[in-house]
Amino acid sequence: MRASELEFRRRGWFFFALFLLTFGSYALQPVNSAEWLLRVMGRAAPSLSVPTWGGAGRCIFAVGALLIGLGAWLRTWGTAYLHNEVVRDKALHADRLVADGPYRFVRNPLYLGNILLAIGLAPMASPLGAAVLVGGMVFLVLRLIGREEAALLEKQGEAYREYFAQVPRLWPALRPRVPRGLTEPRWGQAWAAEIWMWILAVAVAVFAITLEASLFDDIVWSGLAVYFLLRAWMVRRVRPRSAG
Description:
Blueprint: H1 5-9, H2 11-24, H3 33-40, H4 50-82, H5 84-87, H6 109-121, H7 127-156, H8 158-166, H9 187-193, H10 195-210, H11 213-238
């Protein structure tokens, strides 16, 4: 399973389309997964109201917020070592092998973060949307990993084969599988690059406490504006200066 060059270069748009499909599914199934699950479990009445499912629902959304936060940390940690200009670039970088930071425990911490995001956000989607989000995310991630690993194997040869054999693909090892390297992490740009996932974690956590959908929406949309402003600032910083 390997992504095409188009899929890799436009991967951001594929992820965006996945989220559109996920939350667009409310048009077909206007109930979120947490509500549906509680109905199936008999913890909520068919004529659902917040007081009948608040406590159990809060627990589900709190777990979701924790998973998104864990995914955000993995992506931030990974971006600090891989560097944002590589993470966001449309081109595939296989000229160097990063085996430091989280890459000592798992080969694809960034994509593992994506999967944790999908699972953590699933309760906010309809049951159909949750299936689309989690299934679609795993499918896209595996295809992208297939392309990246093939390129690394071609460019890095035996060094990557050795790393490949020692470090698991998506299920992290409990202990580092390779020695610490010399890569210097860039924490500032990593936090700025992954701010969107942290905002999503906060939005779901706030929803778990308040059960106010409008407050969740306000945080998400405000956070999206902050993310695009930070991203534009980072693009200007890494853009090569013109001569003269």
